[in-house]
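note to self — DONT lose this again. spent like an hour looking for the file last time. sequence + predicted structure for the chain T wanted, 246 res
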Amino acid sequence: MLKIDFENLVNLIRKDFDLFPDNLKSWNINYLEYQKNRYKSELRILEGFERTNEILEIGSLPYHMTFFLSKSGFNVTGLDLNPERGKAFIEKHCLNVLACDIEREKLPFEDGHFDIVLFMEVFEHLRIDPIFTMNEINRVIRPGGTLILSTPNLYKLSNVLNFLLGRSYLQPYSQFEKLYTTGHMGHVHEYSRGELRTFLEKTNFRNIKISYRSYRIKWNKFYLYLPQHLIPFFRPYMLAISKKGQ
């Protein structure tokens, strides 16, 4: 049970869609509706941590989770490739969001600065050097601190069906096109559980727990939901919670 009024915070975000430029407005609207159940699930996890913890949220556009955490009393810093995209929203709600290209630049923090790093639905967008990025994330987490990472599951049922039908599961052109529409790359690669675990282990994360997640039911696609419910391997998301190694 969340201690915050989640639906009220969602409605506050809805009132501010016009603060974003036209090229991001419709994307922002759709993203909130598609991801709000995931946000709620992740906030339940974070309710188990102290409000005094220093939290870094990497890849914070469209700043929904940054907003939820800030309004819930958490000490959160967001990182975004280009915070100018949401400057009006950031300023209105006094969010702490810094600019950083996490694929090319070192994270602008001292070693061991954060208790928790959130890396939610970003890993699959990395197209240059995910090893560099993951090592930087490890560097800024305090010893014993926590990384919470979510990413699409390569073997979600819709992907498997596309494979069997000879279709692309990513539609590469549309993913690259997002460089022009939203200002960042779309999905480069979606990972299996074993691939994700290898990245975490090789970049010094330990006590790795990876679970398969599904956050909403689309009743017009119930034929997808039922197998996902019965066989977690087919669920659309993976959530990894791990600790920084010593």
